[in-house]
Amino acid sequence: QVQLVESGGGLVQTGGSLKLSCTASGRTFSTDAMGWFRQAPGKAREFVAVIGWSANSITYAGSVKGRFIISKDNAKNTVYLQMNSLKPEDTAVYYCTASQRLQMLPQRTFPQSYDYWGQGTQVTVSS
Questions:
Q1: Which residues have CB under 8 Å from 44's CB, separation 6+?
Q2: Averaged over 34-51, what is the pLDDT?
């Protein structure tokens, strides 16, 4: 099993920045990719970004490309999401996720392609 713990959420004004962190523990050697999804009230869980652990492959959702940056620190088993130029529509619970194998597109943007999930961290962007 792999445990994921997120941190870094909070309240920020439009145009501001936040950085989320997610640290994996347990059988981390079994994971090949880590990423982020988000879910706003009344909406489905939405893909944000994913980074391959070994191949360093990165994919972003179109809605965050150019504003968000995903990165990783292999030594710390941690993935980061730097969120810049935040908008009210970015308000959601952000979930860290990990998979045993990085799927091809478009499957890597589907929540069912991931094996482990964190508890989520709230990000609220005020207008």
A1: none
A2: 97
